Amino acid sequence: MKYFIVTYGCQMNVHESEKIAGILENLGYECGETREEADIIVFNTCAIREGAEDRVFGNVGNLKKLKKKNKNLIIAVCGCMTQKSQTAQKLLNTFPFVDIVIGTFNLTKLGYYIEAVKKGRQLEVLEEGDIDESLPYKRTSGENAWINIMQGCNNFCTYCIVPYVRGREKSRKAENILKEIKEVLKEGKYKKITLLGQNVNSYGKDIEGGLSFAELLSEICKLDGDFTVSFMTSHPKDLTDELIETIAREEKLEKSIHLPAQSGNNRILKMMNRNYTREKYLDIINKIRAAIPNCRITSDFIVGFPTETEEEFLDTYSLVEEVKYDSIFAFIYSPREGTVASQMDGQIDEAIKRDRVNRLLNLEKKLQKEEA
Ligand code: SAH
Ligand code: SF4
Ligand code: F3S
Predict the structure, then answer these.
(1) Is 235 in the pocket of ligand 2 (CB under 6 A)?
(2) Residues 262-270: what's their mean pLDDT?
(3) Could you say which of 10, 237, 248, 307 would form a disulfide bridge with 275 (CB–CB 3.0 to 4.6 Å)?
(4) Distance between CA atoms of 247 and 178, rounded to whole angstroms?
(5) 204 HSE (CA, 13 A, CB side)
(6) Is the CATH number 3.30.750.210 carried by domain 141-254?
(7) Where in the chain is the domain with CATH 3.30.750.200?
(8) Phi and psi angles of residue 7, each rounded to the nearest 5 degrees, phi first
(9) Element at 230 (helix H, strand E)
């Protein structure tokens, strides 16, 4: 029996697909090379922008032919997109040949759902629950081992769907994280540890008497072995001096920070609920540059947030010029149902959004060339 997993979205999802693979291998499945030879196909989806969701609908739709040929093929859709009950319903209604639709919290019971489906039931499960730490991962990223340190997000940036589909911030216990990393290092083939969370800088705030993120990093760096450590993603509002000092001090920590600014304009930052200003952001950048020479700094930006004017967009443009990032991602604002920003007046015309993102990406290309 073979499985095939299709992954969309961020590193968190890439890592979660490693968990899905682990669960399926435990059940006796082997990794297949193509969809055609698979007995089970799992779509691990992303809901961050509309485009991500459209691709899933297109690709799941394409499986109808395969399902006709192979009646026993099981098709499962999971991840951030299916955690929204309306989208889950729409998937099941549009594609009656989909067998299992599960949310982000129910992954660990996949084996149980597969058994139910074999008995002839179509399943939709979107309950909140805890993540089962005892399940295995099948790591697939070469020398790099992803380590999840927390789930969810409490920030509710007004444009973002993540808090709705991933729930509230929940840090894993430091002892479990350290144990997992020790086991990974013992295998001998991993040289890079990448810690994952939507907002790693607030790690531990939900555990009384627990370690801060900077303390967790120091503990990880004390482990024996020849390896480096990196992490994503940092939220500027929670980035502490302690963290900057830790990155500067610890040899094993990569000198690299992904610090999404999203916008360079204070009115837009406020409307986004980011909880920092352009000045505060630049302050942090200066502190990082002073403490960690040659630190690689990267960022994400959103253009065309509701009501964003040309002048306000130019503030984002000038921030990118000023910081001289090592690289940036620029996204067109995509309204997500259920978020505050999607209800705001002053949604920006698609053509204007596209023009702004192109200008920002051209600037990025120009800066990259100057750097080279
Ligand atoms: N937790 C991370 C971001 C996760 S989403 C953080 O706070 O930085 C990754 C990126 O997608 C975000 O940084 C943002 O730039 C972009 N993004 C999120 N929601 C979006 C939306 N509705 N439209 C366009 N881009 C979005
Ligand atoms: Fe989304 Fe903001 Fe949370 Fe990042 S910090 S996941 S952008 S709500
Ligand atoms: Fe990641 Fe997309 Fe979910 S960016 S957390 S997979 S909505």
Answers:
(1) yes
(2) 98
(3) 237
(4) 18
(5) 15
(6) yes
(7) 258-372
(8) -115, 135
(9) strand 228-232
Which protein residue's CA is at the shortest distance from atom 2 of ligand 3? 46
CB neighbour class for 170 (10 Å; exposed up to 12, middle 13-18, buried from 19): middle
Backbone φ, ψ for residue 282 (5° rounding):
-65, -35
pTM of the model: 0.95
Ligand 1: residue whose CA is nearest its atom 10: 300
Q: Which fold has domain 2-125?
A: Rossmann fold (3.40.50)
- 155: CA distance to ligand 2 center in Å? 6
The CA-atom distances, in angstroms, between 135 and each of 75, 217, 247 are 22, 24, 31
Fold of the 258-372 domain: Transcription Regulator spoIIAA (3.30.750)
Per-residue pLDDT tens over the stretch 47-97: 999 999 999 999 999 999 999 999 899 999 999 999 998 999 999 999 999
- Cα separation, 317 vs 303, whole angstroms: 10
Q: How far apart are the first and last CA of the chain?
A: 49
Considering every ligand atom shown, identify the ligand nearest to the alpha carbon of residue 45 and give its number: 3
CA of 13 to the centre of ligand 3 (A): 7
Angle at 167 between CA 163 and CA 173, to 5 degrees: 120
Pull the structure tokens for residue 368.
């990259």
β-sheet with 256-258: strand ranges across: 256-258, 296-303, 327-332
Q: Does residue 246 contact residue 217 with C-beta atoms inside 8 Å?
A: yes
- Token pair belonging to 56: 């899933």
CA distance 141 to 14: 9
List pLDDT tens digits, range 125-147.
Answer: 777 776 667 778 899 889 999 99
8-state DSSP, 342: G
- How many angstroms does the Cα of residue 355 sit away from the middle of ligand 1? 19
Q: Answer whether 334's CB lies under 8 Å from 282's CB.
A: no
